[in-house]
């Protein structure tokens, strides 16, 4: 699959519900066409707010959001007619059957009647179409919500934690469905999650948001490099200028008070730095690996 | 326009299988059935009261409680119930994320509410006629069959009370969209209606929308014909104002769904 142009692009997207309490800061989201973009972050990081802004559920007409190369607000109807979405819990009319739920949204989207049967087949709910939505299991509800999102043959799916509350089998089912939609129907998918393990198996691209800031965006391989770059060595030595000069060509160094903060890739580099300094008569008073916020964040999204 | 018709069709479909149709039928049939029973149980009192000509006195008798109590309460309840379908099912976000204009969403749902309120008046007029005919069949002393059914008066009165209740529908629609909690619009609506009943003798009551429907029935338009045009104008202005303000306010909400 060729991935080149951007389907979603936000530029310096800021948002706050109350002045002085920013929810999102300087978000530059770039979702390539044809990708499965995993939007990761711990709970409360700003994922849902970002997705709601992308769908116009939060009104901020001055924000710079481009979808399909068009500014969102002036082209809201045209853009939304090419997007299928599932935000938080599935939006279903519990008193209506599966096919009636689809009919409600089919009328709004103006899709052909035969699409109801087609999307039910895609999500594997054809045999349960006459059952009331309230009788569906959570997994079936999620699948019906995805069927609704697919009714108008969208080019882009925006899914907010679609596997929330599902058992492991349900998670695998949804994952396979999304992979199929991406590969067989060429749908770009933006999927949010608070767990890396949920999206790493299918995502081609990842974005990580924390405390309202997009701290990483790129491919899975780039994420590995980014994670190792998260290590910081703190050093206290007798001669700061000389110690800095000795390693500045190989490392990024910052001086804070009487300490040097050095970005390193791995723990072996601690020994390497120590050897250079000892050889050059630098007295080392203390060397310590700092536990960065980023490290905490990875622990949260990897192990939560 | 085709899109608006499709979306309105979708809005009607959403109310399928809910209690709204049953509530409409029960609200429309309740007073005609009660008054039918009263006529059968107390012919000693009621035969005289239903003179002259049975139908017009019976029309007044059946409409009295309906205009004062049933119509306002029914309208307040049904408006909240229709809007609650979206809140209860957590579907507002899906509605607003569909390629629909704001005005389309706002007015297509209002059409459903208005259709139900209108249906109430049609059903009520039908049940009134049937209950009157049933009284005549069960007790011939009422001499119902001797008098023609005054369809014009039935329609005119229903039309007047309907005009009187549409501002309440518009205000309640605004409140129901504004507040997620079902109890708030319902409580405000019933509170305003009760306040209106208490204030009914107030000389400025003509500026109080929650009493327009009762006033459309209780005002003596034969002796005060100018009151009718005043009520119609006030009611229409209030309806349009509440709709415009409501649409403006809901459109401006920062977060939808």
Please render the helix and strand layout as text.
The complex is a heterodimer of chains A (304) and B (257).
Chain A: E1 6-10, E2 13-18, E3 21-27, E4 30-32, E5 36-40, H1 47-54, E6 65-67, E7 70-71, H2 76-80, E8 83-86, H3 98-109, H4 114-123, H5 138-150, E9 156-160, H6 168-184, E10 188-193, H7 196-199, E11 205-210, E12 213-219, H8 220-228, E13 231-237, H9 240-247, E14 252-256, E15 259-264, H10 268-279, E16 284-290, H11 293-303
Chain B: H1 2-14, H2 20-41, H3 43-49, H4 55-89, H5 92-96, H6 102-138, H7 151-178, H8 183-198, H9 212-218, H10 225-252
Number of domains of chain A: 2
- Report the sheet-strand fraction of chain B: under 5%
Number of distinct helices of chain B: 10
Query: Based on CA inertia axes, which overall geometry of chain B fits?
Result: globular
Question: What's the alpha carbon Rg of chain B, rounded to whole Å?
Answer: 20 Å
Q: Approximately how much helix is present in the residues of chain A?
A: 25-40%
Which CATH class of the largest domain in chain A?
Answer: Alpha Beta
Beta-strand portion of chain A reads 25-35%
Structural class designation of chain A: alpha/beta
Calculate the terminal CA-CA distance of chain B, rounded to whole Å: 25 Å
What is the H-and-E element order of chain A? EEEEEHEEHEHHHEHEHEEHEHEEHEH
Number of helical stretches of at least 4 residues of chain A: 11
Radius of gyration of chain A: 24 Å
From the helix content, strand content and strand pairing of chain B, which structural class follows?
A: mainly alpha
CATH superfamily caption of the largest domain in chain A: P-loop containing nucleotide triphosphate hydrolases
Shape of chain A: elongated
Can you write the helix and strand succession of chain B as a string? HHHHHHHHHH
Q: Largest sheet of chain A at a glance? A: 6 strands, mixed
CATH domain fold name of the largest domain in chain A: Rossmann fold
| Greatest interface (CB-CB under 8 A), with counts per chain | A-B, 33 and 31 residues
